[in-house]
Design brief:
signal, 5-stranded mixed beta sheet, alpha+beta, NERD, NERD domain-containing protein, 8-stranded antiparallel beta sheet, disordered N terminus
Length: 323
């Protein structure tokens, strides 16, 4: 009898998850994008300032765009940060590259030197900022590579460059120690004039807030996906109701449940805010609203993937579109 009850509970639980989350949601539970936002949120809590995630900086030398995981901007300094959501075992090669071996020892991957790659990203970002009228003093940017996955073992950690922040180092940092980071934040411009610091700080924040970025899906359960929004799919009347939502006009969508007590809704409210190129924010009075079926889907192509994924609106919290 107990076996039948257990099997019944498992079936109900599985059915419940399938109703609330589609297959793409379940695949994204441990995604690299979600790890980025965990790191970004903790950086902002520890150091203050602003973290910009998922940048796509134009590279004049190659004519392509350079992906930058995140940039932390505080008064007088900025840090370009790469996040490697690795698990298993990592060792350092003589040329600076990394050997990444899965925990079951069945798969080995060789990564180009992540520290050098991050420094290259910082150089491209500096050139981009200069093109937009901001010349930073020498040493303004520092670089870090963060390893936030507790299932990663560094062999041995002392051989890795100081720019690499292991999981143990990451979790041991505390808010009150933000001024004693021995190289995390270098304070490169602290000795300059206050007015010049504030000017560069303001310009840097403005340029990064308007720089090219990946579109962003926020899913239920604090999961995130970076990539490119393609279109809506669903009943003709629902797609027609959403036709005015274009990246040139609107920047963010918020999905709200219209049902009571959290039951699976048949309809959802989609609130969307007009794009504000002045950077002054959007008031509640400017928000537009449309109601569509919860089965309506968002077609989204994740970063570094050739596969287009479908996400039901019922599994989405918000969608942010870049210009």
């Amino acid at each position: 009898m107990w076996i039948e009850i257990f099997c019944c509970c498992v079936f109900i639980y599985t059915l419940f998850r399938c109703l609330l989350y589609d297959d793409d949601i379940l695949e994204m539970e441990t995604s690299d994008s979600s790890a980025l936002f965990v790191v970004a949120n903790r950086f902002e809590k520890l150091y203050g300032g602003k973290v910009y995630v998922g940048l796509r900086i134009p590279d004049a030398d190659t004519g392509s765009r350079q992906n930058v995981d995140m940039v932390l901007v505080t008064e007088g300094e900025a840090v370009v940060i790469s996040v490697k959501n690795l698990s298993g075992f990592v060792s350092l090669n003589a040329d600076g590259s990394w050997n990444c071996e899965s925990s079951n020892m069945q798969k080995t991957e060789r990564l180009p030197d992540p520290v050098m790659e991050t420094k290259k990203q910082a150089s491209i970002l500096e050139s981009y900022l200069e093109q937009r009228g901001v010349a930073l003093p020498d040493g303004y940017f520092s670089c870090k590579v963060v390893l936030p996955n507790p299932k990663l073992c560094i062999i041995p950690s002392r051989d890795f460059p100081s720019e690499v922040i292991t999981y143990d180092q990451w979790v041991q940092q505390k808010r009150e120690s933000k001024n004693m980071f021995s190289g995390w934040l270098k304070g490169a411009f602290r000795s300059g004039k206050k007015e010049m610091q504030e000017s560069i700080h303001q310009k840097l924040n403005f340029i990064l807030s308007t720089a090219p970025m990946w579109d962003r899906l926020e899913l239920k359960g604090n999961k995130y996906v970076l990539g490119e929004f393609l279109e809506f799919k669903g009943k003709q009347e629902d797609v027609q109701a959403l036709k005015n939502i274009k990246r040139s006009k609107f920047s963010r969508l918020i999905i709200q449940n219209t049902s009571m007590l959290g039951f699976a809704p048949s309809k959802l409210q989609v609130l969307y805010s007009p794009r504000d190129y002045r950077g002054e924010g959007t008031s509640d009075s400017e928000l537009k609203e449309v109601t569509v079926r919860s089965s309506t889907e968002v077609l989204f192509q994740p970063e570094n993937s050739t596969k287009v994924r479908k996400f039901k609106l019922s599994s989405i919290v918000s969608l942010s579109l870049t210009a």
